[in-house]
Design brief:
single chain, mainly beta, four-stranded antiparallel beta sheet, 1 helix, 41% strand
Length: 340
C-alpha cells in the first residue's frame, strides 16, 4: 500500500511501512487541497487546488489535475469554464466509474463522465433558492463548495456542503436540489453518511459537530465531549460504523498563526454513532497543527491515517487509541488517498 498525499507544494507518495522517508515528491500539480479516487480504479486519482494563501497554498495555472498511474504523473484537466475557479471539493460516485464531480469557488458544481476529459456544469445548483445570501467571512466573501458525498445505498442521491451556505441534497444526480439547513450552522466543512443507515448524516462546521437522523431534514448540534468547536475532518470507522472521528481546533484558520498554541487542536471519537464524543489526545495532548483529512488504513480494519497543516502524516491504530507519525517532514498537507 502507498499513500498519495496532497500538500501545499504538490504531491508526495509515501510507503507507510518504510517510515518517514518519502518515496517521491512531485511538483505538478503545484498545490493540492482535495483529492478523490475513481470508484473502480484506485490508481485513477483527481487533485484539486486552491489559492488559499493563508494556508500556504499557491495555485498554478490550473486547478484540477488527474493521474492514471497512482499519482506518479499528472495532467492538467481544468475545465475551461472553471479556469478562474479554485477547486475545493472532489467526489466520485460509488456506482459510476470515470465519473467525477468538482465543487469550486463561487459555489459551482461541475460533472465529468469521461474521467475529466470534458465537464458540464450542474445548472440546477446555480438555481438553489437563497444562494444569493451565501457568503464567506474573509474578503472577498466568495462561498465555495466544500464537501460532496453520495448515498452509498442510493447513489443518485448526493449531498453538497457549502462554506457558508449549508447543505443541499439532490435525489436525481444533480438535476435538482433542495436546501437542508434546519438547525444547522451553515459553515459546512465535511459531510458523511452512515453506511448502515442513509438517514443518518454527519456534518463538521465552523460552529461544531452536527447530526441529522432524518436524511438532512433537521439537524442538531452535538456538544457532549467537545472542548473545541471548529471541526473539519470526518471519518466513519470502516470496521464499526458506530465509531465516528473528527478533529476540532480552538478557532478558525486565521487564528492558527497568531495564537500561542497554534490551532490548539484535538482529535475526538464517538462510540455511539455521533451522539457524544471523547477526546483522543495521544501522548502529546493538543496539537499546534490541525488535522485536515482522514483516510482509511486498508491494512487495519480499525485504522486510519490523518494529515496535518504542519506536514505530518499520522497513523491511527486500534480505533484511534494508538497514534504514531509516518512522517513529520512534509509541506502543509490537506488530503490523502490510499493506493493498494
Amino acid at each position: 500500500m502507498r499513500l498519495c498525499v496532497g500538500t501545499s507544494k504538490g504531491i508526495v507518495i509515501l510507503d507507510p511501512d518504510r517510515g518517514r522517508v518519502p518515496l517521491m515528491i512531485l511538483a505538478d500539480p503545484s498545490s493540492v487541497w482535495c483529492m478523490a479516487q475513481d470508484c473502480r480504479d484506485p490508481g485513477l486519482i483527481y487533485a484539486g487546488a486552491t489559492g488559499l494563501a493563508s494556508m500556504g497554498s499557491v495555485r498554478g495555472k490550473g486547478s484540477l489535475a488527474r493521474s492514471a498511474d497512482g499519482g506518479r504523473t499528472w495532467s492538467d484537466i481544468t475545465p475551461p469554464l472553471a479556469r478562474e475557479e479554485d477547486v475545493w471539493a472532489l467526489a466520485t460516485p460509488p456506482d459510476s466509474p470515470r465519473e467525477v464531480l468538482i465543487g469550486t469557488s463561487h459555489a459551482r458544481l461541475f460533472r465529468s463522465e469521461d474521467a475529466g476529459r470534458s465537464f458540464t456544469e450542474c445548472v440546477a445548483f446555480l438555481q438553489v433558492p437563497g444562494r444569493e445570501r451565501w457568503s464567506f467571512p474573509p474578503a472577498p466573501h466568495i462561498p465555495h463548495v466544500r464537501s460532496i458525498v453520495f448515498d452509498p445505498g442510493h447513489p443518485a442521491t448526493m449531498y453538497v456542503g457549502v462554506e457558508e451556505g449549508g447543505v443541499m441534497r439532490s435525489r436525481d444526480r444533480g438535476a435538482s436540489f433542495e436546501v437542508l439547513n434546519q438547525g444547522l450552522y451553515p459553515d459546512v466543512h465535511t459531510l458523511a453518511i452512515d453506511p448502515g443507515d442513509s438517514r443518518r448524516l454527519y456534518a463538521t462546521t465552523g460552529g461544531g459537530f452536527y447530526l441529522s437522523e432524518t436524511a438532512g431534514g433537521s439537524w442538531r448540534h452535538i456538544s457532549g465531549g467537545f472542548s473545541r468547536r471548529y471541526t473539519i475532518p470526518l471519518l466513519i470507522d470502516p470496521a464499526d460504523s458506530a465509531i465516528v472521528y473528527t478533529a476540532a481546533a480552538a478557532g478558525p484558520p486565521p487564528t492558527w498563526q497568531s495564537n500561542a498554541g497554534g490551532a490548539d487542536a484535538l482529535m475526538f471519537r464517538s462510540r455511539d454513532r455521533g451522539a457524544g464524543f471523547e477526546p483522543v489526545a495521544g501522548e502529546g495532548g493538543p496539537m499546534r497543527a490541525m488535522m485536515m483529512r482522514f483516510a482509511r488504513d486498508m491494512r487495519d480494519g480499525g485504522g486510519f491515517f490523518a494529515v496535518t497543516t504542519d506536514g505530518s502524516v499520522i497513523s491511527a491504530r486500534n480505533h484511534g487509541e494508538s497514534l504514531a507519525p509516518v512522517t513529520e517532514e512534509l509541506p502543509p498537507a490537506y488530503d490523502l488517498v490510499a493506493i493498494p
